[in-house]
Amino acid sequence: MAILIDETKRVLVQGVTGREGRARTRLMREYGTNVVGGVTPGKGGQSVLGVPVFNTPQEAVNSLGNIDISVLFVPAAGVKDAAISAIDAGIKLTVLVPDRVPVWDAMEIAAAAKANGAMFLGPNTLGALSPGKAVVGMIGGRAESARQWFKPGIPKGVGVISRSGGMASSTGYYLGQAGVRISTIVHIGGDAVLGVRIPDAALMFEADPFTEAIVIFGEIGSSQEEELAQLIVDRKVTKPVIAYIGGKAAREGTRFSHAGAIIEGGRGTHAGKVKALREAGVAVVDSFGELPEAVVNILTQMKGQSLMSEADRKATWNTAITRVEPNRVGVRGYDIAELMGRVSFGAAVYLILSGDLPSPAIARLMDAILVASIDHGATPPSALAARTVASTGATLSAAVAAGIMSINRHHGGAIEDCARQLKTIGDRATRESISLDESAARTLTAMRETGERMPGFGHRYHTKDPRTARLFELASEAGVDGVHMQAARAVEKAFASTKKALPINVDGAIGAILADLGMNPAAFNGIFMIARTPGLVTHVIEEQARERPMRRIDPVNHGYDGPPPRSMPRTSAS
Ligand SMILES: CC(C)(COP(=O)(O)OP(=O)(O)OC[C@H]1O[C@@H](n2cnc3c(N)ncnc32)[C@H](O)[C@@H]1OP(=O)(O)O)[C@@H](O)C(=O)NCCC(=O)NCCS
């Protein structure tokens, strides 16, 4: 995961037909950004690089549906109107790239954002980039260079917050050279009035499970670094922070490159910032050149082991999953021989996907998730596909692959879709200051109006899915009860109050649990595939052993001749 931007965010480009808008749209898309539309007044109906152009953000939303981020490449004089029209269209993050935006205009944008529960980054920002995922704005230049410079935060990385645009990229570059992975680089902009400031970005990184430490490129002027120090003292930011503060030589009244970098009335001095941060426990380096090593040292201390060898540093690419050496296989750092016999398969799946070993209760929960999905008879599309391909004389691998290939948005995909909807319900409750019950009810009403179905609720077979209650019981034993689980219960309540009582099904329960565990939604469908593979292998072997080649497979009309219902043998633990 990352903050502000990733590949799932739907991005609008305002000023898309202009010189910079056009060029950056191409670069952002090449890096993986999901640019869904553009806006230039009077140019609606055109398209830029296949991206449809609209006259206003509202027209774009009406035509394209939800848009998460709008990035502006509009000359300074038009920024206020452009930003406010995006905010009014319900877009929750606007990224204001232009420089020279009048301070008064920035204040009006701030007021509009506040009134609409929206955020803005900038003005005068290069934007944000989450390595390996997406970029919004101008960080990194060509996609190819950005890919080489910034190492993706898999499973975790450091978050970079910079008050300088050029140094945002340089910090990412030098950290990458030192082998440090990055979750997101954020350039907050150099102006006096800003949307997202250092303390805001630090709180976002604190909440991001895939950020392990925070790197700050600060400078003189404003009180942002001092406010961050206070957040650390108040234990609102607990992740390690490593900082460099520019402008040591600046005298009072001297502007240091950016409008916001000025010492006034003795406030915002270099010495004052360094003191406040050091007293809060931040590792503040004296020169920028020391920053990468300081970050490596802190990460090393955190992990109790050296991050990278000289050979790793020189390699053309790295993987953070498994290191194979003569006589040792280290999965996420753990010797595989030590894991074998000591951790369950569910715990190992959690380890490889998230990067860390789970607690025993979470390991039990992961096992239960895998067991819950191991098979659901011969009728699901994956089993039918695997059997059909097996009946042609295909190999085991081809037939199982056919089954796996049928696991998509409508088969297994409800896990991820449901988790996303539950997050939307949670976000809406916070944004609109309403209860989760109210947020769930409003979301369901809106979905009903557009004919959308709530994924993860109801089942074509079960009226009460036997797997769900057990999963929730194990989740509760593991202390997993975050906003997704709470939102799931709120949705059930909202359904119960209508004529159509739809209980949460196994996909919905798994989605809510995995999301509350902080697992990456991109892996959810993969977890279902991992779980379902033993079932598919068995279907293929049975098909090949028992049935005629090329038989007509009735998708529903089949009998069962396996063992009768039986109970687990009692063990001392059960
Ligand atoms: C924003 C900026 C990049 C635009 O430069 P540009 O692309 O050369 O400008 P252009 O005139 O070619 O394009 C601007 C487009 O915005 C459009 N536009 C104007 N008002 C608009 C609005 N309200 N909504 C959408 N588009 C709008 C214009 O019509 C124009 O498109 P067109 O050429 O098709 O008519 C430039 O003004 C700027 O601020 N540069 C500095 C940015 C920077 O360095 N920031 C970070 C510093 S660390």
Commentary on this structure:
There is one protein chain. 44% of the residues lie in helices and 14% in strands. It has helices at 19-31, 57-64, 79-88, 103-115, 143-149, 165-177, 198-207, 224-233, 270-279, 291-303, 310-314, 336-339, 345-354, 360-372, 381-390, 396-405, 414-431, 436-449, 466-477, 483-496, 506-516, 524-546, and strands spanning 10-14, 34-39, 47-48, 51-54, 69-72, 93-96, 119-121, 127-130, 134-137, 151-152, 157-162, 181-187, 211-219, 241-246, 283-285, 322-325, 328-331, 334-335. Strands 8, 9, 10, 11, 12, 13, 14 and 15 form an eight-stranded mixed β-sheet that branches. Helix 14 crosses helix 22 (524-546) and helix 19 (466-477) packs parallel to helix 21 (506-516). It is globular. The two termini are 38 Å apart. The site of coenzyme A has 25 residues, from helix 1 and helix 3.
Short characterization:
The protein has 574 residues and is α/β, with parallel strands linked by helices.
Characterize the main sheet: 8 strands, mixed
Give average pLDDT, whole number: 92
- Number of discrete domains: 4
CATH architecture type of the largest domain: Orthogonal Bundle
Task: Determine and state the CATH class of the largest domain.
Answer: Mainly Alpha
Keywords:
574 residues; alpha/beta; Rossmann fold; 4 domains; eight-stranded mixed sheet; seven-stranded mixed sheet; 14% strand; binds coenzyme A
